[in-house]
Specification:
Layout (H helix, E strand, L loop, with lengths): L2 H10 L7 E6 L8 H14 L3 E6 L5 H10 L6 E3 L5 H9 L3 E4 L8 H8 L4 E4 L14 E4 L4 H13 L2 H15 L4 H17 L7 H41 L1
Parallel strand pairs: 1-2, 1-4, 2-3, 4-5, 5-6
Helix pairs in contact: 2-3, 2-6, 8-9
Length: about 250
């Protein structure tokens, strides 16, 4: 978004124009390490009165996390928005300055990818599904260990950095995440299947031959399913874009 577009978006979200906005999206549950993330954001917000925090998601830890902010007297600067989807989720991401994340048990880090695809840099703890997409100092902040003071310090640096640096990180975030686009991932998967199907290991026993032929049959079936899914997604995207242009 341009500066003016972001300003208008924030007005529609009742966020002050001068605010520095952090956000989290995802399940509000213990496995997401929300207790640590909330305590980090509380510490940061108490030091920086212009900071606002927005949360998109639901889960069993929601009331406990809300309580941390309310007891700190920060209720006016925190918004719990519930589960968001589609355009609402897109506008949520677009209204942020930085995305914050503390889970260390991710397999893919989808919400991290979503935020970065919207041009939003991220601050997160190192872990699987995070280190694959986040490069420290390039498209965000990657912290090696769970250190509350260090996390707060990096957020302070993010807030006080020139806007051009944040925008540059946002561009790098959007560019770096493009390699995880659905069609590219599907194409990479198809390449793996093709290589496996064309391989000839020349097994030395009848049992190995039988096992290899069975595996090739399963791979061929999965390859066909992935090909069909890729075509279906391409058609669906084409129809959606067409409807959007006509609207």
């Amino acid at each position: 978004l341009t500066r003016e577009e972001k300003k208008r978006l924030r007005q529609s979200q009742s966020i002050p124009a001068h605010a520095f906005v952090l956000g989290y999206a995802g399940r509000i549950a213990p496995e997401k390490n929300l207790d640590f993330l909330a305590r980090t954001v509380v510490r940061f917000m108490k030091k920086r009165p212009s900071v606002h925090f927005r949360v998109a998601g639901q889960g069993p830890s929601e009331e406990a996390v809300k309580g941390l902010f309310l007891r700190a007297g920060l209720g006016r600067r925190v918004s719990f928005l519930g589960a968001l989807r589609g355009d609402e989720l897109l506008r949520f991401y677009q209204g942020l300055d930085w995305f914050v994340f503390a889970s260390r048990s991710e397999t893919q880090g989808m919400v991290l990818c979503e935020a970065m695809a919207c041009g939003i840099p991220a601050a997160a703890l190192d872990g699987p599904g995070v280190r694959e997409v986040l490069q420290d100092g390039v498209n965000g902040c990657l912290l090696a260990r769970q250190d509350l003071d260090a996390f707060v310090s990096r957020l302070e640096q993010a807030e006080t950095s020139p806007e051009r640096k944040r925008l540059m990180m946002g561009r790098h975030a959007r560019k770096s995440i493009s390699r995880f686009a659905l069609q590219r991932c599907a194409s990479d998967a198809l390449d793996v299947y093709r290589a496996a199907l064309s391989a000839d290991p020349r097994p030395s026993s009848t049992r190995l031959v039988r096992d290899w032929l069975s595996l090739k049959a399963r791979l061929r079936a999965e390859w066909k399913m992935t090909s069909s899914l890729t075509r279906a997604v391409r058609l669906a995207l084409g129809e959606w874009i067409g409807r959007s242009l006509r609207a």
